[in-house]
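Researcher: We're teaching a course module on how sequence relates to structure. For the next exercise, students receive a sequence and then see the predicted structure as tokens, so they can try to spot secondary structure elements on their own. Here is the exercise chain.
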Amino acid sequence: MLSCRSLAFRFDDQSPWILNDLDLTLPPGEFCTILGHNGCGKSSLCRLLSGIYLPSAGSVELDGLSVAELVETGTLSTLVHLVLHDPHWQIIGDSVSQDIELGLRNVGLSGQSLMDRVDWSLSLLDIDGYRDRSVHSLSGGELQLVRLAGAIAVQPRFLILDEALEMIDGARRRRILGTLGDLTKKLQMSVLLTTHDVEDIALADRVLWLQSGRIAMDEPCDIALHSLANAVPQPFDIPGVASLAVRLRGAGKPVSLTLDVEQLVDDICRLNCET
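Model: And here is the predicted structure for the students to work with:
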């Protein structure tokens, strides 16, 4: 279990607090999404959870052990893997396959096990065709896919994605969210995704809203969606399908609180058939 207790962070004694008195627990096998606008502390929290930053106060622990200690012993990288918003900062190979291979060698894999893991991660994200391409020929969205494949290949216990899907187009992004949800169930991998796009919470088990360095909401996806859609003023752009679902439920119609258009259409058709 990855956890923060009374976590606070700022860069120095003269800087404002970025995070303040934050408590958070990430259990195994959970898909958690953190919503927040730029400057709310999402990226700092991701770096604290992955040991890049150290707390100014409070603690970050993995199974009761300090993340800072795990960094010093070199064991954290196999347990917690962070994918940053800008993939250029983490690309280390010349070709796609080489980049993923180097990441796996860093955590001790070799031989056929390594090659099988590369094949599996590329296939999982449907980017087998990228294998021999130069990373320098890829677009930003394609590079994000490569970095995600490299992170998934490691099979960490905790995969932290700091707005790491932002450059990927909508349809493929939705498929990847589904894949991440499957990984939490099949591998008991925990996924933490930060975003400012409400559509990204669709398949999350849990949604947090980070506001000014504090957790303003921590709810299951359907309850979070209802709260956000009814908030005045609305803190985020709410997709039309979610707004319609909330209005229908407010009118007494038993439809799902969903971001899935097909699901809502099915619910409406079912209601029409029952009347």
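Model: If you want an answer key for the exercise: The CA atoms of residues 1 and 27 lie 5 Å apart. Residues 2-220 form a domain with the Rossmann fold fold (CATH 3.40.50.300).
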